[in-house]
Design goal:
Layout: E1 3-6, H1 16-25, E2 31-36, H2 48-55, E3 62-67, H3 75-81, E4 85-89, H4 96-105, E5 109-114, E6 132-136, H5 151-165, E7 170-174, H6 182-188, E8 192-195, H7 197-200, H8 205-223
Parallel strand pairs: 1-8, 2-3, 3-4, 4-5, 5-6, 6-7, 7-8
Helix pairs in contact: 1-8, 2-3, 6-8
Length: 224
């Protein structure tokens, strides 16, 4: 099942709920929340209070992407705020297995993220305990960046490992997802597509979601 996860990082925070409702009406099935601390990545964004505020207004799952150091210290706060999915970076977690198990113990979906320069091989021993793998197709920290084509190989590699090992994790991709890239990403094996600038950056967000989903579903049919 293909799902589109609009990233609120690219939305107008002064009109957040107003901008979100049209994208949900258009078919988006979850919302992506980028959390940055100014240390692991060169930007500072939001924390649990914004997640809690969103939770009051939307019913769809909140996909919280922790681009932060010491992520384990903040998992409970984000779960309590209403997060349904939480992903952490392989590069930021010294004890990745323990962090993933902490997330799962709180009853939410656990994901692991890899940056563009991080090999899929670093995830070999964690793939059987995560619910999803998020492949960064840009260097994290800012929205509106261009898609890095070589990440398609990593998506294919993950899809092959999943099939070979009979695992059930989903593949999510974040960065540069737009009408000219979404088809290749889906054909490579991704099912959860994070789009920020392509949704909120120009035009009507609801219409943009419809176009992106249509392109993704067309690519799925071609793949079949």
């Amino acid at each position: 099942m293909i799902e589109l996860a609009p990233s609120i990082l690219s939305a107008d925070f002064g009109r957040l709920v107003e901008q979100i409702q049209p994208v949900l009406d258009a078919g988006a099935t979850l919302l992506h929340v980028d959390v940055m601390d100014g240390h692991f990545v060169p930007n500072i964004t939001i924390g649990p209070p914004v997640v809690a505020a969103l939770r009051k207004h939307v019913q769809v799952p909140l996909d919280v992407h922790l681009m932060i150091e010491n992520a384990d210290d903040y998992i409970s706060a984000f779960v309590d705020a209403g997060a349904n999915w939480i992903s952490v970076h392989q590069e930021a977690c010294v004890h990745l297995d323990r962090v993933v198990e902490h997330i799962r113990s709180r009853g939410v979906l656990a994901g692991v993220v890899i940056n563009p320069a991080t090999p899929v091989a670093t995830l070999t021993d964690i793939l059987d305990v995560v619910d999803y793998v998020l492949v960064m197709s840009v260097n994290p920290g800012f929205g509106g960046q261009r898609f890095i084509p070589r990440t398609l190989g990593k998506i294919r590699h993950l899809a092959e490992l999943r099939a070979e090992r009979h695992l059930g994790f989903r593949i999510e991709v974040d960065g540069g997802i737009a009408l000219d890239t979404i088809g290749a990403v889906v054909q490579a094996g991704a099912e959860v597509l994070v789009a920020g600038n392509a949704v909120f950056g120009r035009g009507d967000p609801g219409h943009n979601v419809q176009q992106l989903l249509q392109a993704a579903r067309s690519a799925t049919l071609q793949k079949a």
